[in-house]
Design brief:
mainly beta, Dna Ligase, domain 1, OB fold (Dihydrolipoamide Acetyltransferase, E2P), five-stranded antiparallel sheet, 2 helices, 14 strands, 12% helix, elongated
């Protein structure tokens, strides 16, 4: 899910920054430009940690800046299919719920909660209720799910999770199953 990633990029340093430490300027520009962005090859850049290499600057005719090829280390977030993750329910809807996993949210569609049918409660706002068992899901619940689809492109991440396998679901459901001798 989280990775230490080496990223290569060309950074433009404007002339008004020439008197400052080049390493500090490039680190600042890299953080401003890249943190919280999404790339299809690395996922979301959570934090730029350090600059490893800086090439001598190149000048492009008509532009007073210098351009440097740099390599920097960053913490990146990239969800993978079949990865098991834990998180908190942050929102419930009539079509399922969203769980916070790391720095983003994933959807657990109502059909992926369990083999039982879940629907919005008519008595309590924001609560999903199992038709047969009466089990509930509400914001603040801790859940464990398995990623069934993770689509990452240059602007967004779409993540879908399931809780239909053993060992998945609300933390309280898992604890109850373990207490009864299940898995």
């Amino acid at each position: 899910m989280y990775y230490l990633t080496r990223i290569h990029e060309t950074i433009r340093v404007p002339p008004n920054r020439f008197g400052d430490s080049i390493a500090d300027v490039i680190l600042e520009i890299s953080r401003t430009k890249n943190e919280t962005t999404i790339g299809s090859d690395v996922g979301m850049v959570v934090a730029v940690l350090a600059i490893n290499e800086i090439s001598p600057g190149r000048i492009v005719p008509g532009d007073g800046a210098t351009f440097h090829d740099v390599e920097y280390e960053a913490i990146t977030f990239r969800p993978l299919d079949d990865e098991v993750t834990e998180g908190e329910v942050v929102e419930t809807t009539k079509f399922g719920f969203f769980m916070r996993m790391g720095c983003t949210d994933a959807l657990a569609h109502i059909s992926q909660i369990s083999d039982e049918y879940f629907q919005m409660s008519s008595r309590s706002s924001g609560v999903l209720v199992g038709r047969e068992s009466g089990k509930t899901i509400r914001p603040g619940d801790l859940v464990r799910g398995k990623i069934i689809t993770a689509t990452v492109d240059h602007v967004s991440m779409k993540i879908a999770v399931t809780m239909k396998s053993e060992g998945l679901g609300l933390k309280t459901w898992i604890d109850e199953a373990l207490a009864k001798g299940g898995s």
